[in-house]
Design goal:
The chain contains 4 helices and 11 strands, in the order E-E-H-E-E-E-E-E-H-H-H-E-E-E-E. It has 202 residues and is α+β, with helices and mostly antiparallel strands. It has 2 domains: 84 residues, no CATH class; 96 residues, Alpha-Beta Complex (Ribosomal Protein L22, Chain A), CATH 3.90.470. A 4-stranded antiparallel β-sheet has the order 1-2-6-5, covered by helices on one side. Strands 7-11-10 form a 3-stranded antiparallel β-sheet. It starts with 10 loop residues before the first strand and ends with a strand.
Length: 202
């Protein structure tokens, strides 16, 4: 299968979430790219699947005219598209291309919770930049699962830095409790970081 498609070695399943990634070119419509993978994963004909977006741009999947199926979310950065499908959960995903980010600490001071910004400031520069990207991925994945995206506010959920990475420790009541959320960080390809976030569907 061409690298541009979702190949067998470009897939991951963790808990109730399935995801896959493929090449992406700026300006491509994600709906057209993810539809063949969805049809295979759900064992449904292409015509049975309807992909729409809500007022905030969050994708929604309807199968045979019914909207009670799996939840869907996707993200693209650089030359990579990542799509996730969640069974019985609300799922969000973010992928980031690892490139120089000279303004990372300024962005952290402006948009992150004070404790997060302080934790990043205490790290060696080479470590802090990758930690910033991992934290950004985690926050955006949760906010995309919630449905509001970045407009909800990156400072309305707080992570603590530990030896195993970032852990969600506090969040706005609209997001539920930190314990409601499961996050899985991984590297889909060299030079990319991604995070899946999900919580049980209400």
């Amino acid at each position: 299968m061409p690298r541009a498609m979702f190949s067998e070695d470009s897939r991951l399943r963790t808990g109730p979430v399935r995801c896959a990634w493929r090449d992406y070119h700026r300006g491509q419509a994600a709906e057209a790219l993810v539809r063949p993978w969805l049809a295979l994963e759900l064992d449904r004909p292409d015509a049975a699947l309807d992909l729409t977006r809500d007022a905030r741009g969050r994708p929604a999947l309807t199968i045979d005219g019914r909207s009670a199926g799996p939840d869907i979310n996707w993200s693209h950065s650089g030359a990579l598209l990542l799509v996730a499908l969640g069974d019985g959960v609300r799922v969000g995903v973010d992928v980031e291309w690892l490139r120089p980010r000279p303004q990372a600490m300024a962005l952290a001071q402006r948009f992150f919770a004070p404790g997060e910004a302080a934790a990043l400031a205490g790290m060696a520069p080479a470590v802090a930049e990758a930690a910033f990207v991992r934290l950004w991925c985690a926050k955006e994945a949760v906010l995309k699962a919630h449905g509001h995206g970045l407009s909800f506010g990156l400072d309305r959920l707080e992570f603590s830095a530990g030896r195993d990475g970032w852990t969600l420790t506090a969040c706005d009541p609209a997001l539920g409790a930190p314990a409601d959320w499961t996050l899985h960080a991984f590297a889909p390809r060299p030079d990319y970081l991604a995070t899946l976030a999900w919580r049980p569907r209400a």
